[in-house]
Amino acid sequence: MMLLSTLSMLGRTGDLHIYAHKEINLLIKPFLIYMGKHMSFRIKLFPLNPERQELLFENKSIRIFSFPLKHRIATNGFLFEEKESSRHIIREMIDLYQIPLKQIPEIKEGADFITPDGTIIRNNILTSPGNPPRRYAYCSDTAYAPEIVPYIKNVDLLYHEATFAESELIRAGETYHSTARQAAEIARAANARQLVIGHYSSRYNELGTLLKEAVAVFPNTELAAEGKVFEL
């Protein structure tokens, strides 16, 4: 609530969209009743569905999905998926065929080019493929759940919790968390390109064991750490 108050004091005017489970109303609504008249922006609440995958947001560049995880309380993972980018027009082709600048956007979207004498120049001659779309999946608190694999298939980067080492497998099941090895098994089943593990139990002062267990199953694994950046 302090964050919302601070945003208002700083003069925010744009709507704030909050995606959370429906129970968030129990926290937000009393605040809005008390502070609503004094807020400088509107708050819009969007409930997450803990039972199935849903599209949360889409624009011309990206789609964001939520999907159910397996935990003691309703919990969701998120998939961030870029859309295919436009094709790259080859500069030499512009010069060769004297392509007008106004036609370049439609060629980048797949159109052929017709020369003044009626010759059709196919798009694949004029362009090269655009940048491949990138996909990132975030799986926070969750027990080992192979059923999430279809939601995250072929992601470039997967963040998956790895609370425990394999020696605490029973404890992981009891608390609806995952071991590092289980996180790696999910990454392998999903054919992810890279795995980042995190959400470590405080019992581990040294994280080498968790990393070793994950790497044994999925070699391209790294440890999450505050401030660490991973390039897609």
Automatic annotation (TrEMBL):
One MF annotation (Gene Ontology) recorded for this entry: 3'-tRNA processing endoribonuclease activity
Group of enzyme by EC: hydrolase
Residue ranges occupied by any Metallo-beta-lactamase domain in the UniProt entry: 133-200
EC code: 3.1.26.11
Gene3D superfamilies recorded: Ribonuclease Z/Hydroxyacylglutathione hydrolase-like
Short name of one Pfam family: Lactamase_B_2
SUPFAM superfamilies according to UniProt: Metallo-hydrolase/oxidoreductase
Protein name in the entry: Ribonuclease Z
Organism per entry: Fermentimonas caenicola
Gene that this polypeptide is encoded by: rnz1
